[in-house]
Design a protein that fits this description.
73 residues; Mannose-Binding Protein A, Chain A; three-stranded antiparallel beta sheet; 22% strand
Length: 73
């Protein structure tokens, strides 16, 4: 099962999230590359994520970061 994000759904989800939680928080979204750096998998299904719209310079691969976070600021 592939996970695809609909921009409209994501927009409304983010707007709802922003209204419920404080800013400057980091939330783990269940995505990691612990087993193999650069291969991102979902924690619940272990399926490889097909997400490619990372921010500039992301994901960080030169540091010991292996979890995808949603950062609210």
């Amino acid at each position: 099962m592939k996970r695809h994000l609909n921009n409209k759904i994501v927009f409304h989800w983010k707007a709802s999230l922003y209204s419920l939680v404080p800013f400057d928080f980091h939330y783990w979204i269940g995505l990691n590359d612990v087993a193999q750096t650069g291969v991102w998998v979902w924690q619940d299904s272990f399926e490889v994520a097909d997400y490619t719209s990372w921010g500039t310079g992301e994901p960080l691969t030169d540091l010991d970061y292996h979890c995808a976070l949603l950062v609210l600021f």
